[in-house]
Amino acid sequence: MNSQAFHSVDGTYNFAYLDEQTKRMIRRTLLKAIAVPGYQVPFGGREMPMAYGWGTGGIQITASIIGKDDTLKVIDQGADDTTNAVSIRRFFQRVSGVKTTEETQKATLIQTRHRIPEKQLTENQILVYQVPQPEPLWKLEPREVETRKLHAYSEYGLMHVKLYEDISRHGEIITTYDYPVEVNARHIMSPSPIPKFDNPKMAMMPALQLFGAGREKRIYAIPPYTRVRSLDFDDHPFEIQRFEDPCALCGAEGVFLDEVILDDKGDHMFVCSDSDHCRERRAAGHAGHRASDAASIGFVSSEGEA
Amino acid sequence: MTQKSLMLQVRNLRKTFTLHGRGGVQLPVFNDISFEVSAGECVALIGSSGSGKSTLLRSLYANYLPSAGEILVKHHGEWVDIASVEARTKLEIRRETIGYVSQFLRVIPRISSIDLISEVAISGGMSSEIAIEVSSALLRRLNLPEHLWNVPPATFSGGEQQRVNIAMGLVRPYPILLLDEPTASLDASNRESAIELILEAKSRGAAIIAICHDETARDRFADRLFDVSQFKAAA
Amino acid sequence: MKALLEAESVGHSYPGGQLGCEDVSFRLYPGEVLGVVGESGSGKSTLLGCLSGMLEPSNGIVRFDVGGQGLRDVFSLSEPERRLLMRTDWGIVRQNPRDGLRMNVSAGGNVGERLMAVGARNYGNIRNEALDWLTRVEIPSSRVDDLPRTFSGGMQQRVQIARILVSKPRLIFMDEPTGGLDVSVQARLLDLLRGLVRDLGVAAVVVTHDLAVVRLLSDRLMVMRQGRVVETGLTDQVLDDPQHPYSQLLVSSVLQA
Fold first, then answer.
1. Which of B80, B104, C120, C235 is close enough to C115 for a disulfide, judged by CB 3.0 to 4.6 Å?
2. Superfamily classification of domain A3-137+175-229
């Protein structure tokens, strides 16, 4: 199977930036990761044209699996229009010419930083997460030689020590993002800094979930329809965040909200973190109590910039 | 009591100390000691100072290692040579069969006198409530003032420590008892209590080997004398 | 009664030929405390390493009664089996409590870790058991959420002990348990150890250079010199009637207070 006879828009790069051998290497890594859900597979990460900490892991995964018929969506903290999301989307447009979208249900491939879309994903979609620190135990056990053994031998008492410490200090488990999960009743995994609100979405998700950490050079995965359980104690069960008010713009309830500061007098409102979800609801006629402020925040929709 | 049963048989026992720090000089103490003690019998070791009475007594407890010979002890119905058996069994013999009232109390920091004694009783299978009761009764008989019971004995006088020692040795019905100067440093009335306790141990069948320089006291409980100086080893 | 730990001609040499220990054999039974004394270079620390599963012996075999199923060569166990053993049925009290504790985890978390490691998942129960153990080692309950770095050396040592005993091990190893502590603190710690060992029926191997420690804690004693055991016997016999020239030297060298 020879490579796509397509070069980037200005003709200087291979399709999707990475050479084909590298893509195959990463795909092999992905297969291993899918075969052992939640297990961190080391991989030979490449030097990418952006610094570590800017999503190089997620970008390498996306680059390895994206095809010319894909439709790509990129979000950062749930929004399509933040700097990072815009940069990454433009990068892929330039090196692959692939169609992009902001609408979740139109995307076949979604790269995300720190959020899972509110809309239920399907079996035809792949979700790629950007991961800063893949090792859930790193704060308690910095030695990698040791954490490899802990994962290999399923010695996870230490993870519960961390949760115990939270409860003893704060009366509850205070971790609100990057909340550790147990995947397929075997490996404990860091879901990346998504809010714990999103953790339940990972369980039995119809879409394939792939995780890439560029600096640490690790890839892991959750196959579709896999059991994912957030860690807790019997007498301190896992709970997601609850918001008192609905989204101020579209009135959505049961979604993750961001706080937006409106002026320097302290005026603020809570709006959907998932910008596409909010836009879709408003387009369908839903309105929150500050719907008129939508324009002032500058929610702009764009589709498939070429 | 018709037939007395043998509890202890010492055979051809020899003890020589070798002082390596002094060029390996040998200090022979005694040689070829043999004797027997039966249940309910008390043998008092006599002999001039330095003749090896204490050394012999300590050897019977496996505190000193004999240079030659055997010390056979009736332990759980079997004859066992405490001098040559493995450590585990020696410890078992000390737990179950032989009690030792030493001349000097080995002080364990922070353990009160009542606890020192009841620990011994508990090791013999008594429940802790009964152990405390029995230990208290014993201390009362030995006239140890009650305000000293919950105090560790480190600061006690010689006589007070001796009474704790005696209680530790007699709180359990050991089949064999070794007594090293049990009445030394006791005044007349406490001495009397100690002697009574020793006689009671005898009458319940304990085989006793004692060192007691106080002849009056000794004559009260000893059935026969064994002169260790007769076995003085040649230099 | 079955032996709990067995050493058969155990020896270990370091790379370069330097001798650690040589030809050590003994059997330890449940509830027995074995003291190992020697000066620096005697090989006692190497021996402890071999016995406690940390250092694979170059010669000989160390066997432990794993799961009550009979003696097994400790180094024939798979690594996860051995690690599990060291977390549950064994404990190692290290000389420096910093090596045996998680300094960035509270006292309660330190003590509860072994419970969580074998699947305890009820916070309330874990905390209660941790509190119970801290009380047993005479640490005030109010300190349960404090970090060990706020504790004195003696207290840190006691947290280490509680952390180990919570899993009800049948065998503990102690490496200079009172090293670096003030004399009165040592006395208190030794007394605590003595009581706990006796109450729990735990067997122990205590390695130290301090004769007073073995006098108080151990039933049996091995004297080591230049990698070999030169004398072995009941503690009081070896200390009161030492046979070997080196044992006599050791005993006579102890300063009387």
1. C120
2. Bacterial phosphonate metabolism protein PhnH (3.40.50.11310)
